[in-house]
Design goal:
By secondary structure, this protein is α+β, with helices and mostly antiparallel strands. It is 27% helix and 23% strand. The chain folds into 3 domains: 18-109, OB fold (Dihydrolipoamide Acetyltransferase, E2P) (Beta Barrel), CATH 2.40.50.140; 142-278 and 436-584, Bira Bifunctional Protein, Domain 2 (BirA Bifunctional Protein, domain 2, 2-Layer Sandwich); 296-424, Gyrase A, domain 2 (2-Layer Sandwich), CATH 3.30.1360. It has 15 helices and 21 strands. The strands form 5 sheets. Strands 6-9-10-21-20-19-16-11 form an 8-stranded mixed β-sheet, with helices on both faces. Strands 1-2-3-5-4 form a 5-stranded mixed barrel. A 4-stranded antiparallel β-sheet has the order 12-13-15-14. β1 and β2 (40-47) form a beta hairpin. The mean pLDDT is 94.
Length: 595
């Protein structure tokens, strides 16, 4: 007997198979389509669980009422389960061997004409879908996404609970602290002129929980960030938030890898664990990104030594100024000169000076405007280092720091993510479905472009690597941190670190960022005070739950795995929010709107 039986139905629309033939059942659902074949009416009745074909014959007492049925009418149908004729078997659905001959039909609710077709491939504007989200979620793909999301959440909870993690809620109304994005703020009616902030993450509270001795914490936490939106970013999102005491980076990795293995095994996939690791500096110099997609090769090479004394001053001049020349090689058969020009324009928008290239149709006779500046020895060294094959094409990046590698990384991502470009470059579909990677030891600090002061690269609570702490006084820009990111298929899935667990170290880093003792006490007093009372070494991570589910579902936008998402402008067409407040509410909150 189905576990989904209720007082209104005996089975769902996805339950019935050949073993149920001969039985009388009652189903509830929505009428999907209706067809009249030679006087016999066929209907598809649909619910969350599947589709059952309903047959209404002319002699049935419910035949006449079928005339008034329209799409999305909510129905209750009772009838006998019979086998489908051999010519109408449907192997694409679980109920494809049977149909139900209706003997009773009740219209539970009617439906207005639909604002859009609920077919999976109907070309509907997203704004329209979100305005009528209750209809959009009836589509099989969308329903599947949300069901999978629920199951993944359950697996994560069960796994972490089995490891003695405690699920603890942290406040949604807190105070504003600098964590990298703008806060959403909430005025306090009881405290005029004062505001709560919605948390960008539970960062400070989970560290306080570790100072409290709770040892292992997790939460499917809601986070709020007032920043520019895109397909993988929402103003409110969910993360699997984890923190542990008396641990190192390796302990966090073991927990996360175990959880991911459990989640992916639920969809029939086996992961290779432990996941590969890469230093931040290696990721940047080899792939031009701190979140490389390792399903593809296309590794970037540093060819600076070949051109250190080159007559081509664009290359040698950059190298002598402390810069680098990078190279990215791929199949060039499908890459036209006009496409190269378009790629160059893309890179110029990212502050590249240009896009030098060499085409190796015949490696002995390379084609390019720049080869005339190179000696035979330089060309031979280049061919050898890059292992050039006939028909390949090499692009070059030139500049200071990681810039030349980042520019080649942008090209690499363009070719990987664009199907047409991938075909031009001869990229084959990757054999590996899921490519996880730990990227470790990011720089602790970087210069703020506007203020010129040191600021954090991830968050201000990350600890420096123990062996690098001496450089905080002499060379803070080159201090590596205990920061790690989890990458999946070129997407930053999670971010975490070992934290500063002593007040002295945390205040030292705050001081490097320009905070005075008074500002530290005002903005971070709760945390630094807790660190002063025997806080243990602790570490954690926040994993983007929406992104994880989106990747598993194969969708390009996390809006497709969130029940009620916002548009790119941060609006909700369904609820018509954000919306103005009336004068009485504004007065009660001691607020006034100015033009």
């Amino acid at each position: 007997m189905t576990t989904k039986k209720t007082s209104m139905r005996t089975h769902t629309c996805g339950d019935l198979t050949a073993k149920d033939i001969g039985g009388t059942v009652t189903l509830c659902g929505w009428m999907d389509v209706k067809r009249n074949h030679g006087g016999v009416v066929f209907m598809n009745l649909r619910d969350l669980y599947g589709i059952t074909q309903i047959v209404v014959r002319p002699e049935s007492p419910v035949f006449k009422p079928t005339d008034e049925l329209k799409s999305e009418y909510a129905l209750k149908i009772t009838g006998k389960v019979v086998p489908r004729p051999p010519e109408s078997l449907n192997t694409k659905i679980a109920t494809g061997e049977i149909e139900v001959e209706a003997s009773d039909l009740e219209i539970l609710n009617t439906s207005q004409p639909l604002p859009f077709d609920l077919g999976e491939h109907a070309g509907v504007l997203e704004e329209t879908r979100l305005k009528h989200r209750y209809l959009d979620l009836r589509r099989r793909k969308m329903a599947h996404n949300l069901v999978l999301r629920s199951r993944v959440a359950g697996i994560a909870r069960a796994y972490l609970s089995s490891l003695d993690f405690n699920e603890i809620e942290t406040p949604l109304l807190t105070r504003s602290t600098p964590e990298g994005a703008r806060d959403f703020v909430v005025p306090s009616r009881a405290n005029p002129g004062k505001f709560y902030a919605l948390p960008q993450s539970p960062q400070v509270f989970k560290q306080v929980l570790m100072a409290s001795g709770l040892d292992r914490y997790f939460q499917l936490a809601r986070n709020f960030r007032d920043e520019e939106l895109r397909s993988d970013r929402q103003p409110e999102h969910t993360q699997i938030d984890i923190e542990m005491s008396f641990v190192t980076e390796a302990d966090i990795a073991a927990v996360v890898e175990g959880m991911m293995s459990r989640i992916f095994s639920s969809i029939g996939d086996t992961l290779d664990a432990p996941f590969p690791e890469m230093e931040y500096s290696d990721a940047m110099s080899r792939y031009g990104s701190d979140k490389p997609d390792l399903r593809y090769g296309l590794e970037i090479a540093d060819v600076s030594e070949i051109f250190r004394d080159s007559g081509f001053k664009v290359f040698s001049g950059a190298i002598k100024s402390g810069g680098h020349v990078s190279a990215l090689t791929m199949s060039g058969a499908g890459i036209s000169r006009s496409l190269i020009d378009r790629l160059e324009e893309t890179l110029k928008k990212q502050n590249a000076k240009g896009l030098p290239w060499i085409r190796w149709s015949d490696p002995a006779k390379p084609e390019s405007p720049i080869v005339k500046f190179f000696t035979p020895e330089e060309m031979e060294a280049l061919r050898k280092q890059l292992d050039i094959k006939p028909g390949q094409l090499t692009f070059f990046g030139v500049g200071a720091g990681y810039a030349p590698f980042i520019h080649m990384g942008i090209l690499r991502t363009e070719f990987i993510s664009d199907k047409k470009l991938a075909e031009c470059a001869g990229l084959e579909k990757p054999a590996k479905k899921w490519a996880f990677l730990w990227v470790r030891h990011f720089p602790l600090l970087e210069k703020d472009a506007q203020t010129g002061r040191w600021t954090f690269t991830h968050n201000p609570f990350t600890a420096p690597l123990p062996e690098e702490t001496a450089k905080l006084d002499t060379d803070p820009g080159n201090v590596r941190s205990c920061q790690y990111d989890l990458v999946l298929n070129g997407v930053e899935l999670g971010s975490g670190s070992a934290r500063n667990h002593t007040r002295a170290m945390q205040e030292k880093i705050f001081g490097l960022m320009g905070y005075s003792k008074e500002e530290i006490a005002e903005k971070f007093g709760m945390l630094v005070n807790a660190l002063d009372f025997g806080a243990p070494p602790h570490a954690g991570i926040g994993i983007g739950f929406d992104r994880l589910v989106g990747i598993i579902c194969g969708t390009d936008s996390i809006r497709d795995v969130i029940a009620f998402p916002k548009t790119a402008s941060g609006a909700c067409p369904l609820s018509e929010s954000p919306a103005p407040l009336d004068e009485a509410q504004l007065k009660e909150l001691h607020l006034r709107i100015t033009p």
